[in-house]
Every structure is written in structure tokens, then in C-alpha cells.
């Protein structure tokens, strides 16, 4: 049995944007896998054994070897199942740029998005929403630069940065629903608005992108369980 034919399992949960990254990458490569859902609020023994350092999803288990951290998993999938379509850009500079923006999204932009619903007071909420909008303006500029006029950050096809950013689109819609503000629109971010439509309609994305209504209900449950501030 070749390395790519070994059994593949993915530990995750449907609302997680990070798990979504792995699912999209697996779909792009037409990899058959078993999706093992973790229960919110508890961690399975398999998860604790597979990711003893962070104890977080997603975890890709290939054969008997666990791979952790969503973007590392995406790169691993691209390298192991190396037949087209490739996910990472072929040129080293393009790969570096894609990784830079993916790191920016995870380290700077997503924390602001995650904090909006738990903001203490209107001023903090407005400041976080402004951070989100400023980040989207940066990503609009990056989209035009990286895509070179093509539909996706990856050019003619979904690539690494598309997956890194696109996984947050469902939760961005949740923020829009709760706030009553349109963050991704054709007036302020025309490139991203068009990109988001194309990304969500992609064959590798559409079957696994969570429905906004389901995410909204899940968010309400999370907010109800959160300790009062």
C-alpha cells in the first residue's frame, strides 16, 4: 500500500473554520476520509492521544500518524497527494506571500472577529468592527495583487490562501447577521465580494461550507454558555 492509500481520518467539528480548511483540501485532492466529529465541550481520548500538546482540532490521522494544526495539515495533504490540482503556489516567492497573509489572518484578523460578540460595551465592539473592516481592506488589496486578475488568490483555481481565508466566510456572515452591518460588499470590497461567491460555489467547498443559519444557532448556544463578563 502506498503512502497516499493509507487510511485517512479527520478529527473535527462542523462549525470549526480550521477543520473546514482540512476538509476543503481533502476534497480538492479527492481523498476519501472518515470524519470523526468531536463533541463541543469535551475532548475524545483519540484527540488527546493524537494532539497531546494543543489538545485541539483538527487532527488528520494518516495511517497511524497524526498531523496537527490546520495550515500544516493543508500543506501535508498537498505534498502527500501530489497529483494536480496543487494547493500551494509553485513559485517560492508566491508561497511566501500566501503564507504571510495566512499568518496575518490567523494572528491578527481572526482574533478581532472572534472577540466581537464578547465585546464589553459598544465602544469596544465598534473598535473591533473597525479592525475587521481595516483587515478586509488589506485583504482586498492583497487579493488584487496576489490573484493577478484571476478569480482566486490561487489564480484560476482555489489555492492555499483561498482556503486559509475562505474558511472564515461562514462566521463572517454570522457577525454580519448579529451586527446588522455588511462587511463584505460590492461597494467597499468588490474583489473580495466576487471572490467569496466563487469560493463558496466551488465543488470542493460547497458540500462542507456550514450553513449560516446553523452557525447562527451554534453561536447563540456558545454565547449562552459563556460566563458573564
From TrEMBL:
GO-annotated cellular components: cytosol
Record's subcellular location: Cytoplasm, Cytosol
E.C. no: 2.5.1.18
Keywords, sorted A to Z: Cytoplasm, Detoxification, Transferase
InterPro entries membership: Glutathione-S-Trfase_C-like, Glutathione-S-Trfase_C_sf, Glutathione_S-Trfase, Glutathione_S-Trfase_N, GST_C_Tau, Omega/Tau-like, Thioredoxin-like_sf
Residue ranges constituting the GST C-terminal domain according to the UniProt record: 91-222
Residues in GST N-terminal domain copies: 6-85
Cytoplasm keyword on record: yes
Catalysed reactions, as listed in the record: RX + glutathione = an S-substituted glutathione + a halide anion + H(+)
GO biological process: glutathione metabolic process; toxin catabolic process
MF terms (GO), sorted A to Z: glutathione transferase activity
Family affiliation: Belongs to the GST superfamily. Tau family.
Function of the molecule: Is involved in the conjugation of reduced glutathione to a wide number of exogenous and endogenous hydrophobic electrophiles.
Protein's name in the database: Glutathione S-transferase
Organism annotation: Acacia crassicarpa
